Amino acid sequence: MTVVVNVQDAKAHLSQLIARAEAGEEVVIGRAHKPVVRLTRIDSTTPRRTFGTMPSLVVPDDLDAPLPDDELAAWEG
To answer: Which domain of life is it from (predicted)?
Structure first.
């Protein structure tokens, strides 16, 4: 079921609208009788990305070492 509210009502009843969205209802907020945004729950089953999962990426030990003078001069112009 879709619930349609105006911005003023959405401000006054945001907590209730969030609860309805969490329960699976679609909440549409409108301005001047036109739909503007849709409030829906976020699917928490989406896997999060894990840092360091690219086995082919190799970071050298001297990654943060100062650049050689000639390369530093080329970057600085």
So the answer is: Bacteria
Task: With H, G, I as helix, E, B as strand and everything else as coil, classify residue 46.
Answer: coil
> Does domain 1-42 fall into CATH 3.30.930.10?
no
With beta carbons less than 8 A apart as the criterion, state whether 41 and 65 touch.
no
Contact 29, 7 (CB under 8 A): yes
**Domain edges within the chain:** 1-42
Q: What is the pTM of this model?
A: 0.55
| Residue 41 · residue 66 · CB < 8 Å | no
Residue found by looking up tokens 């003023």 in the block: 8
Whole-angstrom distance, CA of residue 66 vs CA of residue 75: 13
Retrieve residue 77's tokens.
Answer: 């112009």
Decide which of 50 and 18 is more confident: 18
